[in-house]
Predict the 3D structure of the following.
Amino acid sequence: MRTAIGVDLGGSHVTAAVVTEDGTIHQQHEKDLEDLQFDKVIAALEETIGAALKAAGNATGIGIGSPGNIDAASGAVLYSPNFGWQNEPLGAALRSRFGVPVYVANDARCATLGEYTFGTGKGTKDFVLLTLGTGIGGGIVAGGELLLGNRWGAGEIGHHQIRPTDGFVCGCTKIGCFEAQASGTGLIRHAFAVASSFPRSALLDVARDKLSSKKIRKAAQAGDGHALAAWRNFTGDLAIGLANIIAFVNPQTIALGGGVSTAGDFMLDAVRPLVETLTTMVPRGTTNIVVASLGNDAGQVGAATMALKGGLTAAVAVAV
Ligand SMILES: [Zn+2]
């Protein structure tokens, strides 16, 4: 069975996994990132990828998922606000060091490819993955192909505006982006937005910067009034974004990943009827909304899949 190295490059650490072509992760090599300067990150990638390659023995290639707008043909990071990078030749820097092909793509697109190939997208042709974490990452598969866009920007679902007049300010500077309203961070913002109505709320016992989406979610599941008010506003905004996605691409399945999605049926039962109400021209009930099954592994599995396929899609010629 063929093997590839799948790398998940995050803002705090890098993980290089040995992945076989059946989507199984056999080993993971991790390193914390203390310095996000390009040279330092390259050094951390070399170390973890080198260890994974040694363990794999014989790897077909290396796939790397990185935050930001990535030219998947050249492997250059065109723009990554998380790292403060512009036009950094990530793929080229690593290609010169390893004797196998290196592919680089946006991390959320890689996770989409992983979940599509081996998770809840398996067997579908039209699929969307959304990861609800600090932000909202996403990817769209239409007609069996991952959408990349004219300049690698397709799938930036987190930055379509759903509340441009009354929403929270997004990290991208726009108001009311889907990400600002319906990510884990969005849930926290909703809790603060309704806090004045709940002066004795247990959620406010912790320091402001310690209130987590997990705490709010668990309190909502336990019936806490403040948490439920935040949760209701959060799921309302989530439903708006999901209905928009259905109007754009009418996928067979939308999978929700990331920390918030561990709420499972508690989240799905709230969101599904709202989405139905907001689905008008597209036949209702033709998109399944489910919880993603690969969790944090999706990025590594998808990056390795990209390396085994020779690129994100068959249609894109890639420098190796
Ligand atoms: Zn935004």
